[in-house]
Amino acid sequence: MSAPEGSSTHGPLARRLTVLSGPSGVGKSTVVAEIRRSHPEVWLSVSVTTRAPRPGETDGVQYFFVDDAGFDRLVAEGELLEWAEFAGNRYGTPRRPVEERLARGEPVLLEIDLQGARQVRRSMPQARLVFLAPPSWEELVRRLTGRGTEPPDVIERRLEAARVELAAEKEFDVTLVNTSVQDVCDELLALMAVQ
Questions:
Q1: What is the pLDDT of residues 41-57, one digit of tens each?
Q2: Whole-angstrom Cα distance, residue 1 to residue 83?
Q3: By CB atoms within 10 Å of each CB, which of 4, 14, 65, 163 scores lowest?
Q4: At which positions is ATP bound (predicted)?
Q5: Which residues are annotated as a binding site?
Q6: What is the pTM of this model?
Q7: Is 19 helix (H, G, I), strand (E, B) or coil?
Q8: Cβ-based neighbours of 168, under 8 Å, separated by 6 or more
C-alpha cells in the first residue's frame, strides 16, 4: 500500500505524528481522554484488538474489536502500521487513517505499547516518541492492582512487562512523569505544537 499523495512516512509530515507509550497503568488512557476532551483537533488513532470488550467499551470508540482471523488478515494485507501481542491479546494501529490525517497536516497521537513504538520508529523515524513514566514503581503497582478489572495472573504479567518497558525509557525522545494529568497534557500538547 502506498502513502496518500504528497505524504511521506519518512518526510516532514511524519513529524506531526506523536507516539505516547509507557507501562500499563501509568495513565496513558486518562491523559489521552483529557486531550481529546480539551483539544478535539488532535486525532487519536483507534487501535484494533483481539481482546474482548470491557464493560462500557464500544466497538470503534475505544477499540475496533476483531477475532483472530480478522487480525491475521489485517497483518497479512499490510493494513497495520504496527502491532504487538500483550497479555495474550493482539493490538494494532490501522495504517490508512494515520497516513491520511498526516497528509492533511492534522496532529496525530498514537497510544501504543513499547513493541508498537519500536515498529513506528522503524517505519516513521521522524515521529516523536514520548514515554509516560510513573512517579514511582510503588505508585504503578498501586494503580495496576487498584483497577480491579483483571485477575492476579494478568496483573503479574503486566508488572513483568512494566519492568521491561521502564528499562526502555532511553529509546524515547522525551519522558514525561505522570504526577498530574493536566501537567502531562499541557506538556504533550506543547510538544505537538497544539495551541
A1: 899 999 999 999 999 99
A2: 17
A3: 163
A4: 22-29
A5: 22-29
A6: 0.80
A7: strand
A8: 114, 131
